[in-house]
Structure formats: structure tokens, C-alpha cells
Amino acid sequence: MTSLEQMTPAVKTWLKGTAGTPYGVEEGVRRVMARVPQTKQRSRWWPPSTIQSIGIRSHITAEPATSSHRVAWPARVSRPVMARPVLRPATAILTVALTVTLGGTLLVVPPLSPDPGAADAALPPVTQPAGNGVMTYARDGDIFVGDPTTGDETLIVGGPDDDSSPRFSPDGTRIAFLRGDPTLYDARLVVVGMDGSEPHDVTPAGWPMEFAWTPDGSALLVNEELAELPSVGGVLKLYEVAGTSDPRTLVPPLPFFPGGPYFDDSGPVAPMVRPPDGDLILSGDYHALDVFSRDLQERTTLAAGALEPYEPYGISWPAWSPDGSMIAFEVDRVEDRNAWTGSLGTFVLNADGSGLRRIGTGEGIGASWSPDGSRIAVGRVRESDRAGATLAAGAVVVIIDIATGAEQELEATRVEGKAEMGRGWLHEGWSWSPDGHSMVMLERHGTRPLVIDVETGEASELPWETDSLPSWQRVTIR
Amino acid sequence: MDQDLVQRAQRGDQRAFETLASQHYARLQKAAIGILRDRHVAEDATQQALLDIWRDIRRLRDPARFEAWSYRLLVRVCYAESRRMPRWAPEMAMRTSEEPLAADAFGVVIDRDQLERGFSRLSVDHRTVIVIHHLMDMTLEQVAETLGIPRGTVYSRLSRAMDVLRAAMVPEVPTPTSIPAQQEVVP
């Protein structure tokens, strides 16, 4: 075997040989500078200036934070007009007109968000579409809730902490978000009420790479990189939100090659757990579609024989349908298990491995099921002319009808070429609205998300710049 | 590195930032290529990192730490970029030579493709340690300081990463038994 002593100089030489000499510096700097005027500088501290930029609907005062350096707006309300204690926090937002003092000016803050449980009708289960509520998103390290129908927004978690990636719980009453710098293994997942109240840490400090609420909202599924773990992939853990039990490691790091687990460094975990109760978890390497029982005691490989005609193939982006009856995934042609050489398209199969079929006509990245399970939205990247690579020369979100295979390109999502820096929407992604009639897409952090009507293709820009793809609250259907 | 440039950029001086970007572009690009193994994606990452630097530069308390801090932002962007890359998408253009490495010095033929393949198995944080240490020629102490992680973590990551690269030199694929027992299923 090659020794470490032999490896070190070889790796050095190889790295220096392949990194090459700098190129395109002038053009690169020019591109950066073209975007600088549109890129706001963040403030040095948590400052009054941040408060000012939030606008008149801010519920916070300009003083620095409390001892915990957190600002949750109910704590800053000077005098509520109506009594709140009998209401849930979410209800309070809806029903209470708040009087706050901001910079000496008395402002009346109208109700912002719908309450998922306000109506008599029950919130539909996660296997079905729901009504569209408010959105939560991050900007400049703070967490906001915004109403896409009115454009109002409320800062719910401010302070000096770097907070990001907020996501609504399936029942729409709580928000989980990332706090801290994961690259320093100093980030944790925090859950708050949708008004920012009752914050508590769900995970210890570390590097939560991806997370999702379990369908029942009782836990967070976390793809975690552990500093002390001598692995080259993530580990999937389940943290009870109530913090009543130790986290459970659902899927340990799998062998790193061939392919590695789907949830390697930062793979999304939400589509991996079968709704509605999370009884099955998708796993396996890129060449096998494995389903594990939640306790990992049982493992089933799906469709191995049915996929043989597509050799050499590679599987990616598997996702359960909302009712857990089907799985969608992307199949690529993979030469030598190391070279992407083209897409074979998007496939679906039943949960028991039967019914494998190809839908759609081209590449489909990041399959996302519509809430009613009738369609999936995928990203389609037009390949550049470089062999063996998948850089976007253009990209668009495509909706594929499961039953008919009919495709609909959402023109509003199209990103053309690489004249613009980066790879457009691939940076932040897209998701369905709870009612399945719209999609929300963030092309790049720090920009305004788009809401696209899936039926008409018409797009409208939300009034807020965000650093994360907004997470849409599920509410009762009215 | 001109701290005055950093301080001027912190005050919103775009011209100072442009000079700063010009001075550091090549360094960041080199590291990004090393980590991401794809020149085009690395180019994007470099530019995005510079934009992030502009956005956050006011939060840098000590201008003398600009270089280390900028690496940290770059690594974060590389991490995000890597999430969007198919894990088997290599940068073919990276293979600049078919000549074996280190054959003369050690009598061992180390294949570039094998190294590339082994490197592709590494997570970004493992790659980063290798790149910062071996490509950017920092000591392990400097790597720890730059990335803001304990030295022990740097050592363990480097050790693990080199193990993976070494494993790529042999035909047999490591098995799950290499996973520590305590990391197995905890019901």
C-alpha cells in the first residue's frame, strides 16, 4: 500500500499541478464589482441602523439585546391593546393589535399572520394540500415572518446572532432555524413560536448541514457533520423538539464509495423520510435505492433489476410523494462511476419497488412533489458544452404531470447563460405553496423571491429581499 | 496586505474594495479550485465569496485577520456550491497531465485519476484542510487559526482525508467496518 510519506508530496504536487495559474482575474473582479452596488453591506454590530431598515412594522426597540442577546417581539411590546395570555402565540399575532414604542413614536401594528388553527376546520394532514399562510425567511442574520398577500413583514428573531434557514413546522405553529456558524462547528438548531417566542435549542453546537421537520412535527431530522467523527459523510440524527430524549442516530455514515449515501455532506433530508409518520427512510448509495425502516433493522433495495437496462446509471435526488406511496428520483448515466455523462431523466416507482417508469424528457434536479402528489417540479439545467460537467448554460424549473408525463416549463424561473455570476436558482431553490397552486423561488440570496402561479405561469416578486428560500406556512383551507 | 484597504472597504469605499478584490482574487480562486475541483464552479465561488466579503466586511473586527477571514467565507461558499454539484461530476479539465506522480521519488506510481477520485470522496471540510495545508502551504497551526477550528480537529481531518486518498490508491473499497462501533445505529 502507498504510505503516508509517499502520499504527502504526491498530493502536494497533484494539487499544485491541477490548481494551475490564476486566470480571468480581471474579468472576475469586474463581475464582482458590477454587483457590489446592489449588495448592501451588513452592519458591524446589531445596530439601530438595522432597526431602521426594517421599517415601521418593526416590533422592536433600538436598544441592543437583552442579556440573552435576543429579541423576540412580544418581549418588546410595551403595552398590548388586548390581553394575550389566553391565546396561543400564533393566535395572538392574528388577533391582537399591538402598540409599540419605536424611537419615541407610538405605532399601531396591525395583525400580520393567519393562524393555522384559527378556523374551525382542521389543518389538513401533511399528505394533503393545505391553505397558504405567511412565510418565514432570513435576512442579514435575522428571522422574519412576512405576509405575501399584504407585503407586511415582522422581525421575529433579531439580535447579534447569525440566524438563517428558518422553516415552518408542518402544523405551521413553530419555526426552526439555524443559529451560528456551522463551518466552525458552532451552529445549532433553534425552535421558536412563529412570533419568536419561547426559543430553545434543539441540537448542541455542531454542524447541522441540513434539517427538516418530521411530518408529525415532533422532531427535527438533521444531517449532521461531526467534527470528531472520522467519516467523510454526514450522519442522520433525530432530535426531539421537546428535548425529552437523547438524539437518535438513524443512519450512520455509510461507506463513502461507491457513491456514498445520498445525504452525504449536505444532502436534503426532508424528501428522505416517508410521510406521514416517517416509518421509512430512503438511503443507499448512488447505485441503489434502499429503504430502511426507521430503526434500521430492515433494509430493502428497490428496483435494482428494473434499473439494469440503464447501466451504467446513478441515482440522485430521491423524494417520497406526499402520501408516501411513490418515490421520484433522477437517473443519470455515470460512466466509470466517476463521470457524469448525461441525464436519463426523472423516474418514479411505487413504494414497494414496483411500477418503475420514466417520466419527463430530460434532466430533473431536486424533485419536489406537489402537495397533492399529482406533479413534481424539477430543475432542468441545460448543459454547457464541456464534456463531463453539468454547469448551467441555462436552467428552468419544469413541472411534470405524474399521470401523463406532460411537462410545463415555468418560464419565469428561467436563468439564461452564465453571463450572470453563479448558477442562478440552483443557489437557493424552489418549493411549492401549501395549496399547490404556486411555487416560490429564490434565485440568489439577498434578492427578492418570486411567487409563480403554476397554472398561468405568471410571476410576482415578493417585496422583501431574503437570504433564504421562504418557508411557507401551512394553514387551514378557507 | 494593506489594512488600510480593508478599513476603507469597511467604510463602504468601493474603490478600495476593488483593489482588495484584485489582490486576493487569485489566492481565493486557487483555493476554490483545489476544494471544488471544477474551474467554472470555483470561479463562481470565488466571485460569490468576494461579494460575501463585501457584504460582511464591516463585521471583521481585526483588519489584520482579513486573509484568514476571507478563506473562511470562501470555504462557506464552496460548501454551498458543493451541495449543488452531482457528486460524481469531476472536472475533466483538471487532469492536466497523464504522467504519474511521485514515481521517481518513491518508486510508486500514484495515478492522478485515482487521486482525483479519492479527493472526490472527501467532504468539503476534509478537502479544505488538505487544500489550505498542502496547496496554500500553511502550517497546521495556521490552518486551525484560519478555519477557526481546534488543532486537533485539523489533525484528525487531515489524517482521515489522507487515509481516504490512500485508500483510493488500492483497488479494494473500504467497508462499513471502518465505522467506529459507537457510530452505528443507536435505537
Structure description:
- The complex is a heterodimer of chains A (478) and B (187).
- Chain A is mainly beta.
- Chain A has helices spanning 4-19, 25-35, 48-54, 73-76, 89-95, 304-307, and strands at residues 79-80, 98-102, 105-109, 131-139, 142-146, 153-157, 163-168, 174-181, 186-193, 200-201, 207-213, 219-225, 235-240, 248-251, 280-283, 289-293, 299-302, 313-320, 326-335, 339-350, 357-359, 365-369, 375-383, 392-401, 407-416, 430-432, 438-441, 450-453, 459-461, 471-475.
- Chain B is mainly α.
- In chain B, 48% of the residues are buried.
- Classes of the chains: A mainly beta (478), B mainly alpha (187).
- Chains A and B meet through helix 1, helix 2 and strand 14 of A and helix 2, helix 3, helix 4, helix 6 and helix 7 of B.
Features:
heterodimer, A: 478 residues, mainly beta, Neuraminidase, four-stranded antiparallel sheet, 6 helices, 30 strands, globular, B: 187 residues, mainly alpha, Rna Polymerase Sigma Factor, Chain: A, Arc Repressor Mutant, subunit A, 2 domains, 9 helices, disordered C terminus
Shape of chain B: globular
Number of domains of chain B: 2
Shape of chain A: globular
Number of helices of chain A: 6
Strand content of chain A: 35-45%
Q: How do the SSEs of chain B run, as a string of H and E?
A: HHHHHHHHH
Distance between the termini of chain A: 67 Å
- Count of DSSP strands of chain B: 0
Low-confidence stretches of chain A: 44-111, 229-233, 253-267, 384-393, 417-427
By DSSP, the count of extended strands of chain A is 30
Ends of chain B: how far apart? 53 Å
This entry's quaternary arrangement is heterodimer
User: Structural class per helix/strand content of chain B?
Assistant: mainly alpha
Largest interface, with counts of residues having CB < 8 Å to the other chain, equals: A-B, 95 and 99 residues
* Integer count of domains of chain A: 1
Question: What value does the average pLDDT of chain B take?
Answer: 73
CATH homologous superfamily assignment of chain A: TolB, C-terminal domain
